Structure formats: C-alpha cells, structure tokens
C-alpha cells in the first residue's frame, strides 16, 4: 500500500504555473473591461449611430472570442493551425454577412 505524500499541498502554485495564472487573470480582466465598455457604449449613448454601436460591439466580441480561445481553450497556432484558420474564416464570413445585412436591414425609428 502506498503512503500519501503529505508534504505537497494540492493548492500550492508552482513557479512554472504562476505565469499561466497571470495569463488567465489578465485575459479575464481584459474581457471584463471589454464587456464594461460595450455596456457603457450602449447605456450612456456616447455613440448615437446604431451602425457604429453595432460595429464597436461586434469588434469587441471578436476580440473576446479570440482571448477565450487562446487563453482558456488553449488553442495555439503551433499545434492547431488548421482549426485557427477555420475559425478565422468563420469570423470573416460572420463579419461580411453582418456588413452586407447591415445595408439591407430595415430602418427602425425609435
């Protein structure tokens, strides 16, 4: 029967993991800032043009998706190049679709 090793605490952060924890924390803070900025743009009515509001929020959402994929989902260019390319193409298609539909959208007067 193996004896448990009591000298190692399971919740201690090793030096090599502290860089990863800092990366998670900074990415999380950036995502909170982008979410807060999007909320502020809509609520405070700093920007009044609906198209500009849409593109600002859309671009911040793309940045958040990229942060989440590369930070929390551990998607890196070196090992997952084809997946990154397909995700980039999907983002490009979404961008072009939103741009084209923006021209054809009916104008709603509030």
Q: Notable features of this structure?
A:
110 residues; mainly alpha; 3 helices
What would you say this structure looks like, in words?
The chain is mainly α and 110 residues long. 70% of the residues lie in helices and 0% in strands. The protein has helices at 15-44, 50-72, 81-104. Helix 1 (15-44) packs antiparallel against helix 2. The radius of gyration is 21 Å and the shape is flat.
- Report the portion of residues in β strands: under 5%
Low-confidence stretches: none
How many beta-strand elements?
Answer: 0
Secondary structure class reads mainly alpha
In whole angstroms, the N-to-C terminal distance is 74 Å
Percent helix: over 70%
Biggest sheet overview: none
Give the overall pLDDT as a whole number: 78
N-to-C SSE string, H for helix and E for strand: HHH
Q: Report the radius of gyration as a whole number of Å.
A: 21 Å
| Backbone shape | flat
Task: Count helical runs.
Answer: 3
Oligomeric grouping of the chains: single chain
């Amino acid at each position: 029967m193996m004896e448990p090793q009591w000298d190692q605490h399971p919740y201690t952060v090793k030096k090599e993991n502290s860089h990863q924890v800092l990366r998670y924390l900074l990415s999380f803070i950036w995502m909170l800032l982008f979410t807060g900025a999007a909320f502020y743009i809509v609520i405070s009515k700093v920007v009044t043009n609906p198209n500009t509001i849409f593109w600002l929020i859309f671009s911040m959402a793309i940045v958040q998706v990229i942060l989440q994929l590369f930070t929390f989902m551990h998607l890196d260019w070196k090992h997952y190049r084809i997946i990154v390319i397909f995700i980039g193409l999907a983002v490009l298609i979404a961008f072009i679709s939103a741009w084209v539909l923006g021209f054809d959208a009916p104008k709603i007067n509030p």
